[in-house]
């Protein structure tokens, strides 16, 4: 994985100094809260309901054990002993004191980490496939391009006071594990007929209160022009986006208002102007970055067979372990969704343990997934049983990956000042209702996503089943949505009808799953059945 | 409105005397040499007339409105070498990126502490990307 050189380190160290300076000026009153707010947001520091929340960047979700241990250290020293892994492959801490924020950034900088542009109207942490470099189905490792984007977009002088936030995702596999079409820019590495690498460029996706699946804006962008083309799209948006209504300022609205054809035309014109100034990163620099992502020294001649005699282990093996490109290796998913837990939360001790296990069993590498789980990407099949035992002893062996209890949920009204309703208790009740793992496995892949307000941080639009918490005359109310997907079959979920109480929506989810069990045909997932039979049978069961 | 007493300038030439006129007026008056762009006005409309422009003032109605950064870069990329002034809600923490986008003069609505400005303008030893200043991106330093 990528290692900082003197330049990267000096830039991140300077950021710590700058933020310490800004914080001191805020505390002295030299900066007003209005003036300070965008500055702290560009360092991931939000003011929540009870305290400051700090979001730490984990670029494209990749980190090593030293960095993971630092995340545990911060949880212990500055927070309440836990952290929350997020849908942008980051981690956030919920109980931060403003005065300590510069010290946290200084601690992070000692392990090549930061909180730069994890919030605010800036280019956010670039996300990618959590199986990058390990997946059997990728055409190459997408992370060198993600790192190139990270650097080029860090402190970009033209694009740091954007109309709204801006999110970029990169993948290199047909199975889309990074929800690229729900990003402002989604990039998929492909080869053209001549065998050259390029990107399919999707622009204008997003969730929030006006969700869109991004259209394909350019079918093939030569890899060497990645950054200039992104700059062109950013510049068109920065210049012509609405600035009068915060809810209509994302690039998806501009793409929609101009129309795909006109937006594409404007980006192409701008791109020609930008190309003349040659802002693209040269191939030599890409090659330097790519060298950090060379595959680890996989052993050869390893056994493929795994002893399945322990039935609990076998269940986990079937559910949470995925195919690796190297013979004798596997990809291990650590679910942060135990029944009754808070989706995405991990204690400092669990964080340390995962770091230890990565060091011992996975070439010192971990990944954070947008579904708020952790991945050990390179595990010998021969080590799987020992690894599972260690995870199981720490409450980290929930065998529910991609099942109904593998829920994405935003922090909701328990923490968030924007929320209208709580998300966490709904997630816990649904996980409790479906606690029987056999029942979950019978339902198969079922992506359930919960947001506590219309901003959609819990990705409810992209859930096979989505739940949206709203405020109805002062009480929490939950709308149910069906048929969304953030994967390669991206689609937006549709609302079933009137909303429910907290318990009512759990009942409604159960009724929807019963319709699926009744109507499904061979091999269909929940979302496939929904797409075939439509909303009506579900509505009848839920409201009838 | 900006108070002239608060202005900061990073140019050696004499300040331009002529007041900046609106974009419409500038395009109408063949002898105008100073123009003010409001946020959201198209800087590219000035490009055919750059030979006669000596001052472009770009308005920042709110410091969070970043349209002026793109306007500045477009003018510099088109070869404009005259004074480029940021006017309005211009604060010390935004000066560095404004300088990188080509602004060389500032007319802030509230005074800027020159010591803080000096400190923040020099706080980053390196930059990751080329812009319209003379800072060299790290990829160039890495590869010579």
Ordered list of secondary-structure elements with their pairings:
The complex is a heterodimer of chains A (544) and B (144).
Chain A: H1 6-28, H2 33-41, E1 45-47, E2 52-56, E3 62-64, H3 65-78, E4 82-85, E5 91-96, H4 101-109, E6 127-128, H5 143-153, E7 168-171, E8 185-191, E9 197-203, E10 216-222, H6 226-240, H7 251-258, H8 260-275, H9 283-291, H10 311-320, E11 321-323, E12 329-334, E13 345-347, H11 348-361, E14 365-368, E15 374-380, H12 384-393, E16 408-409, H13 424-433, H14 437-443, E17 448-451, E18 465-472, E19 475-482, E20 494-495, H15 502-519, H16 526-533, H17 536-543
Parallel strand pairs in A: 6-7, 7-8, 16-17, 17-18
Antiparallel strand pairs in A: 1-2, 2-5, 3-14, 4-5, 4-13, 8-9, 9-10, 11-12, 12-15, 14-15, 18-19, 19-20
Chain B: E1 8-9, E2 21-22, H1 23-28, E3 34-37, E4 55-60, H2 67-77, E5 83-88, H3 95-100, E6 105-108, H4 114-121, H5 138-143
Parallel strand pairs in B: 2-3, 3-4, 4-5, 5-6
Antiparallel strand pairs in B: 1-6
Organism (chain B): Sphingomonas gilva
Protein name (chain B): DUF934 domain-containing protein
Pfam families (chain B): DUF934
In words, what does this structure look like?
Chain A: It comes from Sphingomonas gilva. Chain A: GO terms for molecular function: 4 iron, 4 sulfur cluster binding; heme binding; metal ion binding; sulfite reductase (ferredoxin) activity; sulfite reductase activity. Chain A: Its cofactor is [4Fe-4S] cluster; siroheme. Chain A: Pfam families: NIR_SIR, NIR_SIR_ferr. Chain A: Residues 119-272, 407-542 form the Nitrite/sulphite reductase 4Fe-4S domain. The complex is a heterodimer of chains A (544) and B (144). By secondary structure, chain A is an alpha+beta fold. Chain A has four domains: 6-109, Alpha-Beta Complex (Sulfite Reductase Hemoprotein, domain 2); 142-289, 2-Layer Sandwich (Sulfite Reductase Hemoprotein, domain 1), CATH 3.30.413.10; 311-393, Alpha-Beta Plaits, CATH 3.30.70; 408-543, Sulfite Reductase Hemoprotein, domain 1. Chain A has 17 helices and 20 strands. Chain A has helices at residues 6-28, 33-41, 65-78, 101-109, 143-153, 226-240, 251-258, 260-275, 283-291, 311-320, 348-361, 384-393, 424-433, 437-443, 502-519, 526-533, 536-543, and strands at 45-47, 52-56, 62-64, 82-85, 91-96, 127-128, 168-171, 185-191, 197-203, 216-222, 321-323, 329-334, 345-347, 365-368, 374-380, 408-409, 448-451, 465-472, 475-482, 494-495. Chain A has a five-stranded antiparallel sheet. In chain A, 56% of the residues are buried. The model of chain A has no long low-confidence stretch (mean pLDDT 96). Chain B has a single domain (4-143), classed as Rossmann fold (3-Layer(aba) Sandwich). Helices cover 26% and strands 17% of the residues of chain B. The model of chain B has no long low-confidence stretch (mean pLDDT 95). Chain B has 144 residues and is an alpha/beta fold. The A-B interface holds A 5, 7-8, 10-11, 14, 17-18, 21-22, 25, 30-31, 35, 38-39, 121, 151-152, 154-163, 227, 235, 238-239, 243, 273, 276-279, 281-282, 284-285, 288 and B 39-40, 42, 63-67, 69-71, 73-74, 77, 91, 93-94, 96-98, 100-101, 113, 116, 119-120, 123-131, 138-139, 141-143.
